[in-house]
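Predict structure. Chain length: 436.
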Amino acid sequence: MLSTGVLMPLSKAIADKGDIAAAYPAELLSIEAYTKGRIKTGDFITDSNVEAVKDLLEPIRYRQIVEQGRKLKVAATTTDVMKTSPWEYVEATLANAGKARFDARSNVVNADGKPWIGGNPFPDPKSGIELFAAQTLSWGRHDASFYAINVSEVDADGAVRFAYAGGWAELSPIGRVVMDPKPYWPGHENLLRYQSVFFTKPFTFRGTSFLSIWDYDHGTFPSLYTYVPEFRRVRQLPSDQRFEPLLPGSSLYLSDAWAAGDPLLTWGNYRIVGRGPFLAGMSNGWNAEHPNWEHKTHGGPKGNTFWDSTVELIPEAIIVEAEPVKFPRAPISKKHVWFDARNQVVVGMVTYDRQGKPYRSFDGAYSVYESGGKRVMDGKHPYWSWTHVTASNIQSGTVTRLEQVKQIEDHRSRANDPAIYSRYLTQSALQGLGTA
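Prediction complete.
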């Protein structure tokens, strides 16, 4: 087994108590113990002490701390597994453990051969493709999500070249654990997801939107549509060009979404290339003090290149390498993705150019949206989601900063609302967004 823990099987620790502490020794659950007191909870990792945790960082984040003034605040390690994913997703993972398999076409199916029924299909992963399959099946781990977003494109000199705002929506017709009907939306069982992104500012891009409709077959490219207001009609785009920025100045590609933005079988040669402790943002990422949840920045030439962010010691991360086998003109040769062994959440990604040199990175932060007496509810439980993302092009020095905020105009972040489909995930919805 891969996610074995050290002292006892991780899956047993989670099943017994919903807590991972029994699976790991103290030095993998405490940054102070790991660094022998050189770094403690509440400290900042900076260029003055980063060497003590260099082995816990991917190479691009390490360089940014040393060379660009990036810093990371350290929080205590989260041991309660119910705080590392949406509550119902964790419950479904435990209830459905052992039921998933790959069929003859290498699609993930339930024991009865039908599409997956919900939760993580491979909570005790034995291969790289199992980790990626779970990530590709359910990006945000909710049945439906809408994220109000701010995006800033920061040049190497620290200037914000572009500032975008808009929304990102996604909905799963299969594997539903909250929204009725469950586990499938009748008539849509052949689809994996609906996903859209649109922009409200700057004015020159207002109404520009994109809609992807994913087939459940893991080797089929999604259908991709766009609405550009000046043309006043929806157009279909080639969907295999997934390594180009959606908008000028961006360091984000369609392929980057959740580190698994392409159908599972358009990548290949999945293999595990490493494992060990890691530093990542799995808690304390929600800025409850700002009315719109916006985050502060620091570092770089003008003090605004990186998000203020909090990380914790993850006792065990699994690094998977993958290659873009169905993209002959891809500008990258491979990617390395770090998965948190506690919950299989993606906590980091580095891509490499065609010469094998580090090219771009993608690191994000997650959180339960609960802080002190403040909380955002998702049904019966506090909302869990991503909070911010840093996408960096190490060769050009540019950085894309992306954050989830409470609201952009009348578009509000939320999960599992059936209205997300009609408002954001149809071709007529694209037209409506473009004329609003």
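Summary: The mean pLDDT is 93.
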